[in-house]
Amino acid sequence: MILDEILARTRADLPARKERQPLEALARAAAARPLARSLRAALRRPGRVTAIAEFKRRSPSLGWIREDADVAAVTAAYARGGAAALSVLTDGPFFGGSLDDLARARQVVDLPILRKDFIVDEYQIVEARAAGADAVLLIVAALDDPTLRALHAACQRVGVEALVEAHDAAEVARATALGASMIGINHRDLRTFTLDRELALRLRPAIPRDVVVVGESGIRDATDLHRLGAGGIDAVLVGETLMRADDPGGVLGELLA
Questions:
Q1: pLDDT tens-digit series, residues 52-111
Q2: What pTM, to 2 d.p., does this model score?
Q3: Active-site residue, selected from the candidate residues 54, 161, 171, 240
Q4: 216 is annotated as an active-site residue
Q5: Is 116 a catalytic residue?
Q6: N or C: at which end does the chain have fewer Cβ atoms within 10 angstroms?
Q7: What is the number of domains present in the chain?
Q8: Does the active-site annotation cover 165?
């Protein structure tokens, strides 16, 4: 399965990364950062659906989306287009991203930034903060409960927020039991990459009302936003639709209008 391949590659790459940049040095860089911006506060705007605009060059299911995309230009356009926050894919082997992309986005945009990656180790959370991330993605399907709890606690220690991603009722139950303040419902199954655009609406009633809920993947137009908003979804994470556009910021503005 694709998810298992990605996780195996992530774990295999970690020792070399830790050797190149030891945790102690990363922790000093992370501690020197200003306080993180709140992703949760940016996303919850009663009466409207907000957007996390995502920068990604490729995906395992779609191949290259925009291989030559310039992260500074695209993320600046997202900010002009009305994004509440940004997501930057930092996985290299499968998504064509890097932490340098996140650091570059941090230089040009003053919005909360989510590190979108396959987090399996506290080292990656410190790495994210050192690069300028304000939040990280924790994928329930990728983690057993002890590891999920440990990483969620590590986020609090490091000073970043966690968007906890689920794809079915059992995973939502695990995320709520964790005490997640933000839950992302990924319409795309990470094991098969099939898409179910109604999933967030079906799972929303199982999530406490004070939890910010983000609908992820398959967002195409303003109709999708209105439909999700009517069902109690607070925000959407949208990437492919924007990355394929000649004017990503303009398309985002149309989506949010």
A1: 999 999 987 777 887 788 999 999 999 999 999 999 999 999 999 999 999 999 999 999
A2: 0.95
A3: 54
A4: yes
A5: yes
A6: C
A7: 1
A8: yes
